[in-house]
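Model it.
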Amino acid sequence: GTPQKYDPTFKGPIYDRGCTDIVCCVLLVVAIVGYVVVGVVAWTHGDPRKVIHPTDSRGQFCGQPGTPNEYSLAPPHGQGTTEGGGLTVSPAAPSCPPHTQICVSKCPDRYLTYLGVSSTTGDLGYYQNFCVPEFNPRKASIEVLKDKECPAMLIPSTPLARRCFPAIQAKKGVIMVGNETTYDDGRGRRRNVTELLEGAKKANVVLETRQLAMKIFEDYTVSWYWIIIGLVIAMVASLIFIVLLRFLAGIMVWVMIIMVILVLGYGIFHCYMEYAKLKGEAGSDVSLVDLGFQTDLRVYLHLRQTWLAFMIILCVVELVIVLLLIFLRKRILIAIALIKEASRAVGHVMSSLLFPLCTFFLLCLCIAYWASTAVFLSTSNEAVYKVFNESACPFSGQTCRPETFNTSNVTKLCPDAQCLFAFYGGETAYHKYLIVLQFFNVFMFFWLANFVIALGQVTLAGAFASYYWAFKKPDDMPAFPLFSAFGRALRYHTGSLAFGSLVLAVVQVIRVTLEYLDHRLKAAENKFAKFLLSCLKCCFWCLEKFIKFLNRNAYIMIAIYGTNFCTSARNAFFLLMRNIIRVAVLDKVTDFLFFLGKLLIVGSVGILAFFFFTQRIKLVQDTAPPLNYYWVPILTVIVGSYLIAHGFFSVYGMCVDTLFLCFLEDLERNDGSAEKPYFMSPNLRKLLKKTNTGQPDA
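Modeled.
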């Protein structure tokens, strides 16, 4: 069908509408198909084991099912870097081989050196567990160490994340490893164990974090049902607050305004009293200009001129607020009436309060698909082997294959050369364009996430618009307004939602790119480049905020009229600009009420959780579970309460915005005649002194 025209004789919601922005709909379908193809290709080539499991020097994984060797062992010296999930040691030059890394079944538990055990049969048998499979015990000790078939030394180690790290511990303030403060480095020198501390510092942080995580997990296992009860209380409190807004919105707004006036009045009185108290005191009549700038700001509080300036500023602010109240009192009353009407609308469409769960579920799917695809793409590289040697060799640094290396010409020309695992990479076309696929993955994540949010907004807007444009509320409303709006959005306006979310996704990807460039340029000294980058970041941040505002109101117009995205955005923008003062007043009033509601709900539930989990409520003192950290369930309840309150108020905010646009359209399109009656509630008509001639009030 053709897009619906902007009909000046419109009296209610248009249900006979056509498809909009079909090109964008087709583009979205094609992009999703391409995204699925990228995911399938990534899942075919990727291997997440590279992130989880360490590898040996041949690129083989340690700790795989059915293999006896679980842990990765690397020499304790050298600069450790994470490469493909295993701990490797970065070579000093391309021709220098990395330290040999092997998979072992158990980490070493004692101090040993190869030179010290090569003459002892018992210890040599134990030492062989930490040598490469090709180790030949008949080989000369110096040759074994030169060919890196065995480590020069072993130190007591503990397993962590399938890797062996030095077992560092502190006893009475003394750093020790295996109850020793020094160790033999395998070359006849004694070293202090503190030299191992820096290399294992990150491992200790991980170990402490793991212990903390285990304690937090234990707290969740004994308190999860109390946390759920706290979140249910937050949900009930949010629902009650929204219902009470129908009766208390006006009272809360006027109390807030009166409190602001009284606080400013007290501020003026306090400044006058301080000004009068300083009269006649030495040094109090010095002017601010003569005093100049002082680092100790308390000096200014001893000047009469300071308090006089404060008093004048507060008087001006007080006067401005009073004048605004005089001239905007009617608009404030309209905002309060719209908020009350929104509470009634939510009461007639109660299912809308649960709809954010659907949006949240779809967003979780988008995040899961993006994250899994990113992991598989980043692990799609193949094991790359290169030629390493200690003497001059023309093949140094070239790629090689371990299966055919011993029979190649390289070993003939360079007898000491080795074919060792270097890193994960690849030279195929797929590997060359991995960065492009990652960029496409990020872009599609933003596009789909914004599409899901847009779908939720246009669905809620359609449901609440059907309430406003029902002349007899709620009799003229559809039986299932939320499901009807959801069906209309998907059937007719997928293209428009794809268009709006595409524009926003482009801006967000640019912002992510700018943040990446800013991160890379932190060490740069080009001040002009940093300044330019900061300006671009600020501009695109403002642009993103404006597009979100424009998209939100465009989706409301799409839900009402069924017009395409550009027409809806243009009509919504100019409609709001023609009523800019009403927009500002309503926005500030609703912001205050939402802030008050979130503060009240999160604060009350958080305080209740604090007194309960710290066992300060005598009635239920024995019911509270024993905890390692009482702040774990308290913070969980506070964060969860905020998210629940935010979800409820986001629905309520969408309802207010939708009814506001419908109200403005109603004023501009209708005149109260029998042909064009007002659809607003009787309270709004009474407030605006509007009547429907020849029509009974709904």
